Amino acid sequence: MPIDSLPLPLEQPALVYSLQDNQPCRQWVDSVMGRMSLKERIGQLFIYTIAPQTNAPNKALLRKVVQEYKVGGLLFSGGQIENQVQLTNEAQQMAKVPLLITFDGEWGLAMRLKGTAAFPRNMVLGCIRNDSLIYEYGREVARQCREIGVQVNFAPVADVNINPDNPVINTRSFGENPDEVARKVVAYSRGLESGKVLSVSKHFPGHGDTNVDSHKALPLLNFTKERLDSVELVPFRRAVRSGLGGIMVGHLEVPCIESQKGVPASLSKQVVTGLLTEELGFKGLVFTDALAMRGVSNHGNVCLKALLAGNDLLLVPRSLSGELDAVLAAVRKGELPEEEIDRKCRKVLTFKYALGLTRRPHVRLSGLEQRLNTPYTNDLLRQLKCSAITVVGNEDSHLLPLGTISGQVAVLQVGDPAVSAPFMEELSCTVTPVPFRLTKGMSATEMQALQKELAGYSRLLVCVTDRHLADYRTFFTRYLPEVPAVYVLFVSGMQVPRRLGPAPDVLVLAHAADEVIQRRTAAILTGKAGADGRLSSAVGDWFPAGAGVSIKAPAEPYYSLEENGVDAARLSVVDDIAEEGIEQRAYPGCQIVVLKDGHEIYDKAFGTHCGGTGADRDTTRVSVTDVYDIASLTKTSATLLAVMKLYDKGKLSLTDRVSDYLPYLLDTDKRDITVRQLLLHESGLPATILFYQKAIDEDSYEGPLFRGKADSLHTVQIGARTWANPDFGFLAGLSSPVPTDSCTWQLADSLWLNPSFKQIYLQQIIDAPLLSRRYRYSCVGFILLQQLVEERAGMPMDQFLEQEFYRPMGLTHTCFRPLQHLPRRTVVPSSVDAFLRKDTLQGFVHDESAAFQGGVSGNAGLFSNAREQALIYQMLLNGGVLDGRRYLSAETCRLFTTTLSRISRRGLGFDKPDKRNPRISPCCEEAPSSVYGHTGFTGTCAWVDPDNRLVYVFLSNRVFPDSWNNKLSRLDIRTRIQQAIYKALKK
């Protein structure tokens, strides 16, 4: 989007936009302000840098800084992660007002902390065209920051690096193109802030075109204002207009804005107030760069001058006492208005409120390494590195893919051959690479001999793993043979000398020599994988920034059933079984989808929405896109997915006690229940609790609520041998036939419930006696898992699933509360509830426990169709990937789909075949023991077979109109269809 067409900046940054009229926020800020002296309010504007060392002198310094000077935040320099976390906890505990813990993590925690994941530099990430990956990277960095108690990350670098001799920015920048840099800055920053970590774009107004390091001296930006507007300011203006929360001002001399010679931007009112806050309209937090840097440290009273310039937060030098006293004295003399201190202090406190600092945070050290280095982290690293691989020049030469040539390919190895071994191994799967080595110090005779040998090949790969290419300049300028050449750089493109001989026919910039990158690069060269990168900066004098071509992965060939071992005639038996179920009134209609090797081999819908006979027969045919109430399939298609995602992100461990996150369980017999026990149904929780009974007024009906046979009071059948009294009333104030301010959960067309009922059903779980910890299938356990998911995700489970899975997967017909998202005509009725809700349930979950939780529950509530359910399970079968996008790590998918209980057939959330007792197995005998999936009460199932690469989904509304109709099971419809699928597979 062109800068000029961007919307005007938000009145406030997005993080605090909703807090403008927020009474709890205002009350908290007022209460904190009211307890602080003037000196303490000034202290809130100071961020002190301290080493993460746990020795006595350093701890004493920390105590003095926090308790005596009462700084607003801390910045830890590099060191050990355990030390930083320990000091963070101690500092927060002793702070009068919770501290902003800041971090300088431009490429993640690894920039400062050992033993953490090192993400690629921005110059590499700038080659990626998919900005959603950059957003995910920002979210992951935010997650890791929160895990160690950090609320502010001094990133991203928003400088446009158009000077290749820049000694300090260089690969820290996203590249040379202002608009591309701006896009990446916004994507990364939004990812950070979506994870509740403040982004700080730096170094305003732009440090990219300098040849001086501001750590050592004051760089000069000797440009016109027009030049600043067209290059340096572009990313910062985009950040402001995108509602981002933080900007750091650099120590840069900018004569076109600040006329006084030698005054750095960080101390210039013309730059900070005039340009940033007034002209660009920035309302977020303005940080100075470190005030101990030589580009600014020669100025006296540097903190006072920075505040007068318009900065909000000061990265203070070591002389904290003197700087704080200088500011205090200036306020008392009237040089700096006290009202300005109060305004800045309120601003800082408002951001603290937005970042969750209304109470002292505490970081749990146990399990921290596991929570930081998750399978998802490793997979995201792989995606980022592979997505940055860039191919340049192939549009004319068409040298790639190599798979189209016969014979041998010469590979000239520039660097240690051992380093490029994975590349050579992967390459040899498709072509025959012949290795040659170019070494430093080769004589002219040796180089001539090498030239002659290479000239005998029709294709040459130059594989570069040595960063010091200038050492090989003589060969490249004088002896390189005239053979079509592809240069493969497993080093940074910035390390290519500006003049290193003629440009190659094709350049593949892989950036680094990690094994995963080498193997992906070889796959790109041989046509097995695609590439879509674009150069973020020029590569020597060979190719300019922005160059690159898209290499498409090979198209999927036509999938023939017969050629892939599927007998189409035998598969058609599924039609007969499905029709039999309708004729026998096992269900009014159904949907069936079967995928083999990721390809759809069966996709049909049968029957009608409501069934019936004669004049009462429903004519609404079931469509393949209609949605069903999938009942307990919710456990694996929703709740388990959420648990797996949180496990992937390091926010959950299988051995975690649920009470560690749900404190209302701590003083109960459920305090030691683990996540693993809930997933295996071995927690001791009851199978179910009739939550809705607590909503019924016990004085509103005669006799018992249920009886084993019908009589004058018990007129409604709700089970094969159970009748109920429908003449009851709900507790006063708990329900309404229409929506009201207090009754906002819709349970049926004319029944709304007060959400306060949540506390009642949670109390029922707390009060329910814990039973023996043998296998007992428990819906209550999955309701607890939902509470756990929402606590760890920080949002309702349906929103978390929509954000992490359903929306990015394109699942437009998979949701809770479907009438809020889909036309009623597309929702198949679930059942007729003449007892509790006294209505036909269309678009409202059949399961009463889920209904009385507002329709979103861990045990039921999800609506979907067979097509979209099949995609969810295909993603799991693919090891967490669907259509090229990864949703879960392969390691997590493997763990959850292969783990088996020691005392039952159950897996981690999934059901499994019972090979010891086939009579009660949920699957047919032909299904191998590796199969995993689930069934649902409303007549649904989904099964995945990793051995045969099969996904089978069956959805129906067998409980319409009567929930006690059990013909689906008696006729064995679901397992017979599964058996027919296996019989259709050719041996």
Let me know the average pLDDT.
93
Measured distance between first and last alpha carbons: 56 Å
Classification by helices and strands: alpha/beta
Count every helix, treating DSSP H or I runs of 4 or more residues as helices: 33
**Largest sheet, described in full?**
8 strands, parallel
Helix content: 25-40%
Shape: globular
Strand order within the widest sheet? 7-6-5-4-3-2-1-8
**How much β-strand is present in the residues?**
5-15%
* Strand element count: 32
- Poorly predicted runs: 1-9
Rounded Rg: 33 Å
Descriptive notes:
Helix content is 33%, strand content 13%. With 987 residues, the protein is an alpha/beta fold. The strands form eight sheets. The chain has an eight-stranded parallel beta sheet. A six-stranded mixed beta sheet has the order 9-14-13-12-10-11. Strand 31 and strand 32 (950-956) form a beta hairpin. Helix 7 packs antiparallel against helix 16 and helix 18 packs parallel to helix 21. The longest helix has 17 residues, at 131-147.
Keywords:
33 helices, disordered N terminus, 32 strands, about 35% helix, 6-stranded mixed beta sheet, alpha/beta
How are the secondary structure elements laid out?
Layout: H1 14-17, H2 23-35, H3 38-43, E1 46-50, H4 56-68, E2 73-76, H5 81-94, E3 100-103, H6 122-125, H7 131-147, E4 152-153, H8 178-194, E5 198-204, H9 225-230, H10 233-241, E6 246-249, H11 269-279, E7 285-288, H12 302-309, E8 314-315, H13 320-333, H14 338-354, H15 368-372, H16 375-387, E9 390-392, H17 394-397, E10 408-414, H18 421-427, E11 432-438, H19 444-454, E12 460-464, H20 473-479, E13 485-489, E14 506-509, H21 515-525, H22 568-571, H23 573-583, E15 589-596, E16 599-607, E17 628-629, H24 634-648, H25 675-680, E18 706-707, E19 716-719, E20 722-724, E21 735-736, E22 745-748, E23 751-753, H26 757-767, H27 779-793, H28 797-806, E24 815-816, E25 831-833, E26 839-841, H29 848-851, E27 862-864, H30 866-877, E28 881-882, E29 885-886, H31 890-898, E30 932-936, E31 940-945, E32 950-956, H32 967-970, H33 973-983
Parallel strand pairs: 1-2, 1-8, 2-3, 3-4, 4-5, 5-6, 6-7, 10-11, 10-12, 12-13, 13-14
Antiparallel strand pairs: 9-14, 15-16, 15-32, 17-27, 18-20, 19-20, 21-23, 22-23, 24-27, 25-26, 28-29, 30-31, 31-32
Helix pairs in contact: 2-14, 7-8, 7-16, 8-10, 18-21, 23-33, 24-27, 24-28
